[in-house]
Design goal:
single chain, five-stranded antiparallel sheet, PPM-type_phosphatase-like_dom, HATPase_dom, Phosphatase 2c, domain 1, HATPase_C_sf, alpha+beta, 7 helices, Heat Shock Protein 90
Length: about 375
């Protein structure tokens, strides 16, 4: 795992999915506690994490027609955390502000409510579509930050409040039904843009190169392709998408191959450049528009076409989304009011859950432009 812009990131590794069933709350609590102890959380902080995960899981059991908890570790340059996402196709929440008031809890839950989850977490965000479902994400750091253990936690609890800054890049993968590993993967790394103020040397973290990879097929063999693609991507130092894609093509020789798209995200120039081969979708989104960036036909690792790099503007508040064909490409931004203002991990989770296809691996990665 690598850090993007000094904030939390993960690269589709070690995601545990727990679907709604009678044992969801206890299974999610055990898995979360094990992850917390693995990264050295204090027992008091583990208890906070268990409480939040149990409340979210119980809400799913009570209200969702279908839902799941996804648990994983995320890292920054200086910190590691347990992150969970709660995703559902339930009735949604009409009044998020009211639901986030401390002490407001739905019938049958622990009574701590969404507001307490937000207050306990080091990072929290939520988005709800009335009549369609809710997505929630929360991060709990290994060591106490501005929350928990003698902090001013009581002053927090709003949408988007965070003691730890939200990531600018985030993604999520989900295996096809019946498999435990996923052939889709993503990764991101920083690069420096030249800057005359420091002699043209550039400042680390000015830009992001991001990859979405869909290993052909499903199961362990496809997952190995994704693991190899992540390794090659991490070791490569190029920032131009075509150069990165050619390095991936060489690195994936001897595997079953993959569809891959690589994008270079330049916040200073507000431009994105993308080069891809195979069926990976890429869009620059605003609240009302969706501009597609094309990939060429081909299989990375087997048959690379004559490559082309496509470029688009990043308007203020724009979002870059790359996803595999495990998501339907029929979704449009105006079907998700307010989603693009949320943090990237939450955007990825909501899109995957609402537009994902259960008969295929699914993966999505999101990069946000600044204001």
């Amino acid at each position: 795992m690598g850090a993007v812009n000094g904030t939390w990131t993960t690269e589709a590794e070690d995601v545990t999915w727990l679907r709604v069933d009678v044992a969801l709350a206890s299974a999610a609590r055990r898995e979360a506690a094990a992850l917390g102890r693995r990264i050295g959380m204090s027992e008091a902080r583990v208890s906070d994490l268990e409480l939040a995960v149990t409340e979210a899981a119980t809400n799913l059991r009570q209200h969702a027609r279908d839902g799941a908890i996804a648990l994983r570790l995320v890292r920054s340059r200086t910190q590691v955390a347990v992150e969970f996402l709660a995703l559902d196709n339930g009735p949604g929440i009409d009044d998020l502000t009211g639901a986030l008031t401390d002490g407001v809890s739905t019938a049958g839950t622990l009574g701590v409510g969404l507001g307490a989850i937000a207050r306990l977490a080091d990072g929290f965000d939520i988005h709800s579509l009335p009549g369609r479902g809710t997505a929630l994400t929360a991060r709990f750091a290994a060591s106490a930050g501005a929350v928990g253990e003698g902090s001013d936690a009581g002053e927090r609890g709003g949408i988007g409040d965070a003691a730890v800054p939200a990531p600018r890049t985030g993604g999520l993968t989900r295996p096809i039904s019946g498999e435990r590993v996923c052939g889709d993967t993503w990764a991101a790394r920083e690069y420096a843009l030249p800057d005359a103020r420091d002699g043209g040397a550039g400042r680390p973290g000015d830009g992001v190169v991001v990859m979405m990879c869909d290993g052909l097929g499903h199961g362990p063999m496809a997952a190995r392709v994704g693991e190899r693609a992540r390794q090659v991507f991490r070791e490569d130092t190029a920032s131009e998408p075509e150069k990165v894609l050619r390095a991936l093509h060489s690195g994936l020789r001897g595997t079953r191959g993959a569809a891959v798209a690589v994008a270079r995200f330049d916040p200073a120039t507000r431009r994105v450049r993308l080069c891809g081969a195979g069926n990976v979708s890429a869009f620059v989104l605003t609240a009302t528009t969706r501009h597609a960036l094309l990939s060429m036909p081909g299989i990375v690792g087997h048959q690379l076409p004559a490559l082309r790099t496509f470029e688009a503007e990043l308007p203020p508040g724009a979002v870059l989304v790359l996803h595999s064909d495990g998501l339907s490409d029929r979704w449009v931004p105006h079907d998700y009011p307010g989603l693009l203002t949320r943090e990237p991990t939450l955007i990825a989770g909501q899109l995957l859950w609402q537009a994902g296809i259960r008969r295929d691996d699914a993966g999505v990665v999101v990069v946000k432009a600044g204001p």
